[in-house]
Predict the 3D structure of the following.
Amino acid sequence: MSEVHEMLRTSPLTGVLLTLVGYRIGVEIKRWSGNHALAQPVLIAVIVVGPLLWLLDVDYDEYLSGASIVAFFLGPATVALAVPLYRQVRHVRAVLLPMLVAIPVGAIVSVVTGMVLVRLLGGSEALELTMAPKSATTPIAIQITEHAGGIGALVAAFTIAAGVLGAVFAPALMDLLRIRDRRARGLAMGAVSHGVGTSRSLHEHPTEGAFAGLSMGLTALVTSLVVPVAVHLLT
């Protein structure tokens, strides 16, 4: 029995299996709940995988060595977002100028407010640098943070939390604010909730999903340019 446990604890396949099982459970719960906003598969997967890692006594680094196989496919999946975007080229051209203004402004506000909030609450400089790129996609946020001198592992948690919270609450907030335009909703979701929000937008409407994917990519690009400037000015 101990040999089986040791194999499960150290095998890279354990990370793959736990990730897939956790996400599948999340998908089923979302279906059973009638696509309730709180039943986000990513959030449920985190809730499922965390206790399983503790029960199996699997270190995070060992889990990550297997889960990175799944993460590898995030690259091709992100590139595949170009397909719905291509189908919405006509809509993109119609709002090109407002979009090129809104996305940089949103990225600047996100970076500056994150750093200032940490400072007002008495956080350390390292925490400020970690909070700054939270609106970029996770891999890019990690690279930006480590280059700036922040904590890579912590920004991953912040980024995922921002994505999940945005996917859960942003659609209801936009409904409350009477934001009906699919293009505007998609841009907002991609800017604040990156991959998780884009996934939800794709389920909501093709146009919304296409704009969310575009916004996610442009926000990550602008954030990578804004963070060094903000760090220089604010620290």
Q: What stands out?
A: The chain has a mean pLDDT of 82. The first helix runs from residue 2 to 10. Residues 114 and 132 are 5 Å apart (CA to CA).
